[in-house]
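Teaching note: in complex prediction, the entire set of molecules is handled at once rather than each chain in isolation. The prompt given to students was simply: 'Predict the structure of this complex.' The entities are:
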Amino acid sequence: MNSSALTIKTLNHNFGSLKALDNIDITLNEGDYSILLGLNGAGKTTLFSLITRLYDNQTGLIEIFSHNLKKNPTKALANIGVVFQQPTVDLDLTVEQNLQYHASLHGMRKKFALNNALIELKRQNMENILKKKVRELSGGQKRRVEIVRALMHNPKLLLLDEPTVGVDIESRKLIVKHVKSLCKEKQLAVLWATHLIDEVDQDGKLIVLHRGKVLANDHVKNILRKTKTKNVSNAFDYYTKD
Amino acid sequence: MNIFQYYLCFKGIVFRESLRFFYQRERFFSALVRPLVWLAIFAVGFRSFLGISRPLGQPENWPYPISLVPYELYIAAGLIAMIQLFNGMQSSLSMVYDREMGSMRTLLVSPFPRSFLLISKLVAGVSVSILQVFAFLMIALFWDVQPPTFGYLTVIPALFLSGMMLGALGMFLSSAIKQLENFAGVMNFVIFPMFFASSALYPLWKIRESSEILFYFCSYNPFTHAVELIRFSLYGQLNEKSLVFVSIYLLIFLILAIYGYDPSKGVILKKKV
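The expected output is the structure of the full assembly:
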């Protein structure tokens, strides 16, 4: 039986009087590939900010591999790899220097960390970019470097917040394919936030987030059956239309 | 996480800051231009009628081995502190920028305690400011600003402490500033009042002769104590009062900065990062 990678229970979050998240319950197991689908402003980035402890949850519970994020952030965060919506690589530094910096933030030895990164870069035929400045890379390459970086410390839960924003169609396909294969091979739990319906994997799980509420959370096939719709787009409309 | 991993993390943060400093040499040189303009134009212009003489009956306020010091020698300590003040504000500006651009998140999601990450970032910034100070001191030799040789060594701990204090102030401000655009306000409300209401350009006993209120304001200005700590240490002496003030202010600003970036308490909670 798979163990729980991420457990979120009765999570609420407000920005002043604005209710950004309303009673969220989500569970992800090892090897799960889940798409968090929602329009802009649905609360996806707020949810990611809470899971990565940029700010603490005001109510409810977040556990990562059974470590309570609020009470034991060190152990909980060590299991997470994150790709944020906005690029977070330093443009003035080389790919290697960026990766090295990330490794140090996880207390890893440079050599060991770069070996890990090199394996990932080779998988994507990108090993020759190590000495290049990030500024010289294409949008798609930058995002893939961020994925490589997020995996350097061997996390068991990968969070991606709209990782394909600003990336061309070809690079988008490559990124989606790569993350899916990682999920299968490494039994990585993946939570992928997006507003692009075509990024939803028919074999994976789908979480529909709308105005801070989870409206659906199940395998795509089950959701299509329940809503009696033919595709994810129609199912999404079914849940979100007023 | 063990101690060696803490060391690796600290080293990585300092290394990154050094690399950024190496790649942004323009920033380094422009930070030098500001105090050099004060030294080469302002101080030289005022030299003929602004020499500072030893105050009567106040030996504790006079570190110099001579009774009358040329103005450029007097303001050197203030200009050194000015470099550190601007460096502290510059790094806080870059923190606001990093936060808006997203790269701050990389640091904040590290599994190490946030207070450790912030202090490491502070130390990294201070190391860069100390290099800037020494570059300034080398150039200042051309204007006969020449403390005793041992002064170059004894000033280092003072620079570290004052740099940490001013950097912590900048860090706290960066946690409180919501947007990059608001940073201009900091220039008007923090940097200029701090600099001009201090002993950087004129001694406190001279200020007292003109305004008692301003004197008290200057006496409690953290920047005054950073300047005095540096001034005395350049001559191998310890200004104990300033050391106490700088240490207390450092502690206060550090607590506020850590509070500001605390995920459950600080102002970071009230805005979208």
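Point out the following to students. The mean pLDDT of chain B is 86. Chain B has eleven helices and two strands.
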